Automatic annotation (TrEMBL):
Pathway: Amino-acid biosynthesis; L-histidine biosynthesis; L-histidine from 5-phospho-alpha-D-ribose 1-diphosphate: step 5/9. The active site is at residues 87, 192, 194. It comes from the Bacteria. This is Imidazole glycerol phosphate synthase subunit HisH. It catalyses: L-glutamine + H2O = L-glutamate + NH4(+); 5-[(5-phospho-1-deoxy-D-ribulos-1-ylimino)methylamino]-1-(5-phospho-beta-D-ribosyl)imidazole-4-carboxamide + L-glutamine = D-erythro-1-(imidazol-4-yl)glycerol 3-phosphate + 5-amino-1-(5-phospho-beta-D-ribosyl)imidazole-4-carboxamide + L-glutamate + H(+).
Amino acid sequence: MLTAIIDYESGNLHSAEKAFQRMAAEVHGGEVVVTSDADVVAKADRLVLPGDGAFPACAAELRGHKGIYDAMVEAVEVKGRPFLGICVGMQLMASRGHEYELTQGLGWIEGDVEKIAPSDVSLKVPHMGWNNLVIDHPHALLDGIKSGDHTYFVHSYQFHVTKPEERLAHVDYGGDVTAIIGRDTMVGMQFHPEKSQDIGLRMIGNFLKWAP
């Protein structure tokens, strides 16, 4: 079993790599590699797409690595390999992003990524720090996770899903802010599981065991 964390030059992957490798050892989840090799992405059993920065820049970097991009799309859309997007990696699963300019996403989860606009003007953007999850729908990723468990966020844009059933969890930040999305073999987390202590590690382990 091979999990590929896709390196498309969009962020520091060291902490994610260490967290996934730790949990792979604990749950017998096989090998975890950080890779920019399209052949490795193509043969991987699970794919993880991180992302830090702005939606347009990350989208351009991903599509600019054509071999990686094509291998990832085929693995997810054709082969049905389990996929996890993290932070901007989750946002790229959307139909469109509205950060700075209109940018097309992967279109895997229908919806738009737009600026966070809390109803409470005292709440600052970016949404940064710990926040409590509210579970909307059960999922294997959430095994052992409950509403009230908290995870670590750093983001200024939020994913508005079109289909409510594809929002698995949210947090309250002057209104509902999507925390986890998913359908079929695809899931995404707006927060950083590798920075979310035991709860984040539990979800990483759940992903590595997931057999959709």
